[in-house]
Amino acid sequence: MTAPPALLRAASVSRAFGGFTAVDSVSMDLRPGEVVGLLGANGAGKTTLLRLLLGLLAPTSGAVELLGGAPDRERRRRLGYVPQGLGLYRDLTVRENLAFAASSYGAAPAPLEGELAESADALVRDIPLGLQRRLAFVSALAHGPSVVVLDEPTSGVDAVARAELWDTIRAQAASGVGVLVTTHYMQEAEQCDRLLLMSEGRLVGEGDEQAIVAGTTAVAVRTDDWARAFDVLDSAGELVMLSGRAIRVADGDPDGLRTILSAAGLDATVERVPATIEERMAVLARGGGAA
Questions:
Q1: Measured between alpha carbons, how far is residue 284 from residues 12, 137, 203, 269 in Å?
Q2: Which of 127, 141, 157, 249 is the most buried (most CB within 10 A)?
Q3: Is 49 exposed, middle or buried (0-12, 13-18, 19+ CB in 10 A)?
């Protein structure tokens, strides 16, 4: 079957600010019914790439397409966007925010349900963050967009609220909408159909989790004195991470770790384990790994 045309496309796009290159020759696309996750540490270039794709920034070089052409005003009317700051007016009520967003797109306001309906006449600044994020979603979807772009949409909300927002994301994709989402939560990355990993402005990985972590190794260290073991390995310059009381070392050498722990008088088991996306990101942030 022929793949449907891309809703969003970047072709070797770069953006420089003076002598600093925030996005460096990135190519990617987003297709109907697809949820694509854009991952990367703070400063990796994710938000700048989104702004280029939306036509909010002009590229220094390369080309961007939204719905088959330049991201002009008319094409952006078919776009739903939730920025990191949510894009809400804190001094307007919930109902007024929704009415303003709908009128901007020439659409009727979406009906308010549940807690949003109960808070319809409350100022946005007075409602909880989770409810603000839900309102931002409703506002972004009210006009039936073909493309939805979400920049850290669940940051700062609890696990239940994140799950509810992701139900909304998956429902949009099921209806044929293309969704591009940035996230810091690795559990959310698993809900994406495809992942893009950025580091220092470049696209350094694409595909599923296995493709993203290819080339990165990890070592699990198990010991009763886990706190001291963590300190010893960290002081030795190892890239140490903690999951509960489990110690993991990204790109660690098992023999070298055994030597360090033994010299400190620590009894521990050391074994290679599959790496995670988070560990791949940590390796890239330190400047290691092939890009």
A1: 21, 32, 11, 27
A2: 249
A3: buried
Which one, of 250, 248, 242, lies nearest residue 281 by Cα?
250
Half-sphere exposure of 249 (CA within 13 A, CB side): 29
Quickly count: other Cβ atoms within 10 Å of residue 74's Cβ. 9
Of 178, 184, 126, give the one whose Cα is nearest residue 154.
184
How long, in residues, is the chain? 291
pLDDT for residue 288 is more than 60: no
213-225 residue pLDDT tens? 888 889 999 998 9
DSSP run (H or E) holding 12: strand 8-17
109: closest CA among 141, 77, 149?
141
**Which amino acid does the sequence have at 164?**
E
Question: What is the Cα–Cα distance from 33 to 89, expressed in whole angstroms?
Answer: 30
Please check the confidence at residue 42 and state whether its pLDDT lies above 50. Answer: yes
Which pLDDT belongs to residue 291? 40
Which candidate, 42, 41, 47, 6, places its Cα nearest to that of 23? Answer: 47
Model confidence band, residue 243 (pLDDT cutoffs 50, 70, 90): confident
pLDDT at 105 over 50: yes
Tokens 């296995």 belong to residue: 210
Has this prediction a pTM greater than 0.90? Answer: no
Instruction: List, in order of start, the domains of the chain with CATH numbers.
Output: 8-212 (3.40.50.300), 217-274 (3.30.70.790)
Mean pLDDT of 230-248: 88
What φ, ψ does residue 68 adopt, rounded to 5°?
90, 5
CA distance 100 to 197: 35
Q: How far apart are the first and last CA of the chain?
A: 32
The number of beta carbons lying within 10 Å of the beta carbon of residue 80 is: 23
Q: Helix 226-235 vs helix 254-263: angle between axes, to the nearest 10 degrees?
A: 110
